[in-house]
Design goal:
484 residues; alpha+beta; Beta-Lactamase; Alpha-Beta Plaits; 3 domains; five-stranded antiparallel beta sheet; 17 strands; 22% strand
């Protein structure tokens, strides 16, 4: 090691340069990053005869990765100086001693080499070694980051297996994806099946209530642009034309990635404000696409479940009246009778028949008849209790299942229905002269009543009402309805 006229400045000799180069070549060939960096630092200290420390910055924070001697007492002081360094190689006085700080590149994670003394006249070999360290630590950091992303993705998929509902799925995906790229803020917008518009179903870093009612059209804003193009969008936030920051955000850098399933665009995952106010990288885009693959599977599952529920509902609903159909009614009545046995509470059943309905179809036509059937169904909905079940029994007959009903409550509901139907006037002027009445039979279950028994009893009561002149309530019970 030679010195210039200024004893504080040190210069590498050719032998030292050759020895450092050999040590760097050995470090480059070693697959174990931690071991090779420690070995290089040890050899550098032996070659230079001064203390050497290597630092790495990840997630905006510098930390010591290797030092000779180990756990160097000046490491903390050097870390704070690295944040202020603006040149690739600079000599600074730190802790009362001269140190040369050599930065290994501008992209995160960034390596730095700190060598005791002023070596600014030997910049080239030191910069080469710092660059090697950066590449070495970058590769190791990338592998470590990939392992961390894989773990987060696994946890997300495990959580998605239990998540139900689009909002819960969106929240699960967003929390894991935002963590994977160190984002402070994020949102997921999802399209409805058969629609190009999207709505935000989950947010991260701000309340969902601020945006949950927004409808995003294709091409509108960042999310709309990604919906339309089906391609990721990344903004580094670095450029000659600074953008105006919105109050919610700290930086202009963001990433928006589409959630795709074949030719369908299911939604968009968008994140912004990377921790440390750093720009998002192309690696972040790749990371987010990893999470959107799992998100697409979960959202497709939710679509399938929703479609199945819609088909199930359609199979149970009568298309003319909008009420439940006879098949659903019989299943539900059996369930209520079983429950009534367990809880010792009777079930009431009303069987309702439109009087002389054939004349309506003959005089006004079947379309008018369907209108009347729909209107009477609406009257039933407005008359019953919230937990009663209305269904179309067939033709012009309706049924109402009344859980926990007494003779008195069943009779009162039947009378309310009868009066409302009698007061019904169709909205159509062509049906202005039409008058509708109903006959109603009702029955109350006992401890051993079956579906057949209850229907038979209500049918007999309905027949009795018809025989007595229609537009009235029949009850097969020998005693009048009680108020109990």
């Amino acid at each position: 090691m030679n010195a210039s006229n200024d004893s504080n400045i040190r210069i590498l000799s050719p032998a030292q340069t050759q020895a450092l180069t050999a040590a760097a070549v050995a470090c480059e060939g070693d697959q174990d990053a931690d071991r090779s960096v420690r070995l290089l630092v040890s050899r550098a200290r032996a070659i230079l005869g001064v203390d050497v420390v290597v630092f790495c910055r990840r997630a905006g924070v510098w930390s010591e990765v290797a030092a000779q001697p180990s756990s160097h007492p000046f490491a903390r002081s050097v870390e704070s100086s690295l944040d202020q360094a603006r040149e690739a190689l600079v000599a600074q006085r730190i802790g009362g001693e001269e140190w040369t700080l050599v930065l290994g590149g501008d992209e995160a994670p960034r390596a730095a080499l700190a060598v005791q003394g002023d070596w600014t006249l030997s910049a080239k070999p030191l910069l080469l070694i710092a660059g090697l360290l950066r590449r070495k630590l970058d590769r190791e950091g990338t592998r470590a980051a990939a392992r961390a992303v894989a773990r987060l993705n696994y946890r997300m998929m495990h959580a998605l297996a239990r998540a139900r509902g689009v909002a819960n799925v969106g929240d699960t995906v967003l929390r894991h994806a935002a963590r994977a790229v160190d984002a402070r803020v994020g949102a997921i917008a999802v399209t409805e099946s058969g629609s190009d518009r999207a709505s935000i179903v989950a947010t991260f870093g701000y309340p969902l209530i601020l945006v949950e009612h927004m409808q995003i059209e294709p091409g509108a804003g960042v999310i709309g642009a990604v919906l339309q193009s089906r391609r990721p969008m990344r903004e580094s936030g670095i450029g000659s034309m600074p953008r105006v920051l919105r109050p919610r955000y700290r930086t202009n850098s963001f990433v928006a990635v589409p959630i795709l399933s074949g030719r369908d665009t299911l939604g968009v995952l968008c994140v912004t404000d990377k921790r440390g106010d750093r720009p998002f990288s192309t690696l972040d885009v790749t990371t987010l696409r990893t999470f959107t693959a799992g998100a697409a599977l979960a959202f497709e599952r939710e679509r399938a479940l929703h479609a199945a529920q819609m088909y199930e509902h359609a199979a149970a609903v009568d298309p003319v009246t909008g009420l439940f159909n006879r098949r659903y009614f019989q299943v539900r009545l059996d369930e209520e009778l079983q429950r009534s046995i367990r809880h010792e509470m009777p079930v009431g059943l009303l069987l309702i028949d439109l009087d002389d309905f054939k004349a309506v179809n003959d005089s006004y036509g079947h379309l008018a008849g369907d209108t009347v059937l729909w209107d009477i169904a609406d009257i039933l909905h407005r008359c019953v209790r919230i937990f009663d079940v209305c269904a179309r029994f067939g033709g012009e007959e309706y049924v109402i299942v009344m859980p926990a009903a007494t003779n008195g409550t069943a009779y009162r509901l039947a009378e309310r229905v009868r009066q409302c139907v009698e007061a019904y006037r169709p909205a159509s002027a062509a049906l202005a002269d039409l008058r509708i009445t109903v006959s109603i039979g009702f029955a109350i279950s006992s401890s051993n009543t079956t579906v057949h028994d209850l229907l038979d009893e209500a049918d007999k009561a309905l027949y009795s009402a018809k025989q007595q002149g229609k537009n009235r309530i029949g009850n097969p019970q020998p005693s009048p309805p009680s108020e109990g």
